[in-house]
């Protein structure tokens, strides 16, 4: 085994005990054809030296990595799905495979799967993932990371050689198993399950574990004070991630409580979409008929989910203190949204927060009123006054006219460009930004499905990587 000597494995999750998970076996797949391996992040955790045979053995056959979990475990959780409580959830087509530490910052990281076979929580499903679904998640995580979003990382995608029947895509369709690298798989739904089962002692046990493993700065002298500080940290980080989604024009699509984890990291991508133009009512999931998870509703839904977490902590902390902590979400989100918008525009925060807020509001008001392409407008205006010529010459120039734009342009010209805006990178010499709009994704999938042609997929990942480097993400 060619592991880096710096590899730092962990078995931290096992300390919770078997009331929180079930040992499971991976599926025995006909094939293990590597379609994607994230060597950059593999290097961050000491796994980049694995050759392809070793990679397929660990991330397609799930042979244990030395020093980490002796076998896969399916995590137990419940959750609200589209507002309705479901006590029959849990890892139904995935499991926690390994834990290790980030060699750059020491964080505890998980390698979890999607499409790795049935578990006790499969609910009559086949436990598989379509290749199309795996490709979509690889693309989503890559672009979100490039945009600076706090996201899980797609670590591996292996085609597994099975034919799957699905009602939402032409079938039979090809199968795959995805491995994602995440900063925790403990979800709001993990706490909800324990509240539903009235297991107060295990709520305290899970809280202590989550604090020690992920939020040691929340530890206080009493359990109640620790619970409040823990909720405060989760609210702050979820608010930041939500603001990053909004600044990226990203619609997650399925913001159920089992898809929100305690570190605030964005993960589990299904029917996601990026906005073509600014539209608060834009939805990603074809089955989201009421628009519950529409782009503009995402902050409200995140707070609703956090309120469900606070309900679970009533076993530990006073209601009034938990409610007061939830009250901090909205101002945290608003502040983060201003900061994230300025970051995407390549502008420095000024000494006047109200002026920054006005500039950001002006930009989003213009974006909505003009109908300008979402990512093009951010691309064209990155660097403020340094971008004026590029904006005037680019394909979005026709949108940049009129009195409202003149006021916005003057405000942006007065703002201070960020020295790290990356405008000297070749990415910004192009006329158009990197995007992942629905037609582009469909073209990538069509090439793979029709001709087994991966060139569009690889080219898009190269384009995203150039964007990531240019943005310094």
Automatic annotation (TrEMBL):
Pfam families, per database record = SelO
Is Mitochondrion found in the keyword set?
no
Q: What is its EC number?
A: 2.7.7.-, 2.7.7.108
- Swiss-Prot/TrEMBL cofactor(s): Mg(2+); Mn(2+)
Per UniProt, the keywords (alphabetical) are: ATP-binding, Magnesium, Manganese, Metal-binding, Nucleotide-binding, Nucleotidyltransferase, Transferase
Decide whether keyword DNA-binding is in the record. no
The residues the record assigns to binding ATP are 90, 92-93, 114, 126-127, 180, 187, 268
Q: Which residues form the active site?
A: 258 (proton acceptor)
Q: Which domain of life is it from?
A: Bacteria
Q: Which residues bind Mg(2+)?
A: 259, 268
Please give the family membership noted in the entry.
Belongs to the SELO family.
Function according to Swiss-Prot or TrEMBL: Nucleotidyltransferase involved in the post-translational modification of proteins. It can catalyze the addition of adenosine monophosphate (AMP) or uridine monophosphate (UMP) to a protein, resulting in modifications known as AMPylation and UMPylation.
Protein name, entry field: Protein nucleotidyltransferase YdiU
Q: What is the lineage of its organism?
A: Bacteria, Pseudomonadati, Pseudomonadota, Alphaproteobacteria, Hyphomicrobiales
């Amino acid at each position: 085994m060619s592991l880096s000597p710096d590899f730092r494995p962990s078995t931290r999750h096992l300390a919770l005990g078997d009331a929180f998970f079930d040992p499971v076996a991976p599926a025995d797949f006909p094939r293990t054809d590597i379609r994607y391996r994230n060597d950059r992040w593999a290097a961050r955790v000491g796994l980049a030296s694995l050759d392809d045979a070793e990679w397929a053995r660990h991330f397609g056959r799930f042979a244990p990595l030395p020093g980490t979990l002796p076998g896969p475990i399916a995590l137990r959780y419940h959750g609200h799905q589209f507002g309705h409580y479901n006590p029959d959830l849990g890892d139904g087509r995935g499991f926690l495979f390994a834990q290790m530490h980030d060699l750059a910052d020491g964080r505890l990281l998980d390698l979890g799967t999607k499409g790795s076979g049935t578990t006790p929580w499969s609910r009559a499903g086949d436990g598989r993932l379509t290749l199309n679904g795996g490709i979509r998640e690889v693309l989503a995580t890559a672009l979100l990371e490039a945009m600076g979003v706090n996201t899980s990382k797609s670590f591996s995608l292996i085609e597994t050689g099975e034919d799957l029947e699905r009602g939402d895509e032409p079938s039979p369709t090809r199968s795959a198993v995805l491995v994602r690298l995440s900063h925790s798989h403990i979800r709001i739904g993990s706490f909800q399950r324990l509240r539903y089962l009235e297991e107060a002692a295990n709520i305290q046990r899970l809280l202590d574990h989550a604090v020690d493993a992920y939020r040691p700065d929340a530890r206080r002298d009493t359990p109640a004070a620790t619970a409040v500080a823990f909720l405060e940290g989760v609210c702050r980080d979820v608010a930041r991630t939500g603001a990053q989604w909004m600044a990226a024009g990203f619609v997650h699509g399925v913001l159920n409580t089992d898809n929100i984890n305690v570190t605030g990291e964005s993960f589990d991508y299904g029917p996601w979409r990026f906005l073509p133009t600014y539209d608060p009512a834009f939805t990603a999931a074809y089955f989201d008929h009421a628009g519950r998870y529409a782009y503009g509703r995402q902050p409200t839904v995140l707070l609703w989910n956090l309120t469900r977490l606070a309900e679970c902590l009533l076993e530990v902390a006073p209601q009034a203190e938990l409610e007061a902590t939830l009250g901090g979400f909205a101002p945290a989100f608003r502040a983060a949204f201003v900061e994230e918008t300025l970051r995407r525009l390549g502008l420095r925060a000024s000494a006047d927060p109200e002026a920054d807020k006005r500039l950001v509001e002006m930009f989003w008001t213009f974006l909505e009123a003009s109908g300008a392409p979402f990512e093009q407008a951010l691309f064209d205006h990155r660097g403020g006054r340094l971008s004026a010529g590029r904006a005037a010459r680019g394909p979005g120039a026709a949108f940049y006219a009129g009195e409202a734009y003149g006021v916005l342009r003057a405000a942006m010209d007065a703002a201070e460009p960020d020295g790290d805006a990356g405008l000297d990178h070749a990415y910004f010499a192009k006329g158009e930004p990197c995007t992942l709009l629905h037609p582009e994704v469909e073209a990538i999938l069509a090439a793979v499905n029709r001709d087994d042609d991966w060139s569009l997929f690889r080219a898009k990942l190269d384009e995203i990587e150039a964007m990531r480097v240019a943005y310094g993400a």
